[in-house]
Structures are given as structure tokens and as C-alpha cells.
Amino acid sequence: MPGLLLGDLAPDFEADTTHGRVRFHEFLGGSWGILFSHPRDFTPVCTTELGRAAKLAPEFSKRNVKMIALSIDTVSEHLAWCKDINAYNGDPPTETLPFPIIADAKRELAVQLGMLDPDERDKEGMPLTARVVFVFGPDKKLKLSILYPATTGRNFDEILRVVDSLQLTAKNKVATPVDWKRGDRVMVVPSMPDDEAKKMFPDGVFTKELPSGKKYLRYTPQP
Ligand code: BEZ
User: Fold this and answer.
1) 21 three-class SS
2) Is 139 a catalytic residue?
3) Distance in Å, CA 48 to ligand 1 centroid
């Protein structure tokens, strides 16, 4: 069964991209990585997504996250499309984006990574790529996977938010609650006993009283 599950090692594929030939593990180096796929070049939703991703590139870079996109067209088509994406952003219409776009014209990677959307097909009846988001940690293992159909554009602020959570929870024994943003209080993980939590979080642990009497809703300031 093609595709990637949480904890899987990223495949070390080689691909042509708008920034030249890329070997994926070498590209990632010791950084975090985000690989996001697109149904097709010169399509409206994808153009808005790549425009937003380009605007947010400095934020991903600050977090040591390398970005790479994938679309099932050729490098020359990608480069021509980059001009439109930059123009959409109100920038000079150059072929340059702050991250490479993989040319997967034969859909080989899309198949290997489980990215095809069976409901969206091109004029020849071939399935298009869905909107996959894979986030890899510095160990090159999959830490997060989100899959949107071709007809629903992603929210790149949300992707940045989940990167913040992934990076925080990779370093600290905490979990982030609903709608958490950087700086908000976090939750103590259920597996941590109270006495250990008190030692680990000197800024304090607040336990919310609940009808069950169970003391599992434990907050602490963001470490
Ligand atoms: C788009 O990017 O606009 C798009 C691509 C495929 C299907 C639907 C929308």
C-alpha cells in the first residue's frame, strides 16, 4: 500500500525541481521539512496556496523548516507558473520562489507517497494529486500528515501553527490543546505522574476540577 504513516522514514527519492536535481535526504539535511503537493500547475487554488507559502517562507525558515512543493507537471511548466504566482503576490513576475517545486510529470512520486485524489481527474481521465502536507522532523521521520482533496485549499497559518506545536512537543513532555498558539498555556501529558509534573514544570501546574473527579486536565505555562 503506497503512502506514508506517522513515524515512517521519508523515502530518499531523487527528483528534478525548479531548483535543480534534488536528493530528498540531502535536501532535508538536519532540518525539519515540509513537503506539500498540488493537483496541477496553472490552477487557481494552487496558485493562491503557493503565493501564501512564498509569503510565509521566512516564518518557516525561522523555525528551521525547509519547504518543498510537488506538482505533476514539468520543470519548464513550473517555472512559467512561478511567474504567475509571483504576480499574484504583487511581486515582480520572476521564475524564483523561495522553495523548489518537484516536477512529478509521470506521477511516480505521487503514487509512491499516496498523494492521488481519485475524484479529481485531468482531461485524459488521469487522477490529479490531492493537497498533501507532510512534515518531517530532523530525524527525517514523518511527524504530521494532513490530506485535503483538490477542491479545498489549505490554511498555511494552520500549518505554521502545527509546526510550532510539533517543535514544542518534540522538546518538552507537553501537549497543545485545541486552537493553541505559540505562548498559550499547554497541557501536561496524561502519562506523567503529578509529582513528576511538579518537578518538571516549576512555573506551576493548574488542575481543572471536573465532574468525574479525575485530575487529567492539567495546564502549565508554555515551557
Ligand atoms: C485548483 O487548484 O484550483 C484546483 C485543482 C484541481 C481541482 C480543483 C481545483
Assistant:
1) strand
2) yes
3) 11
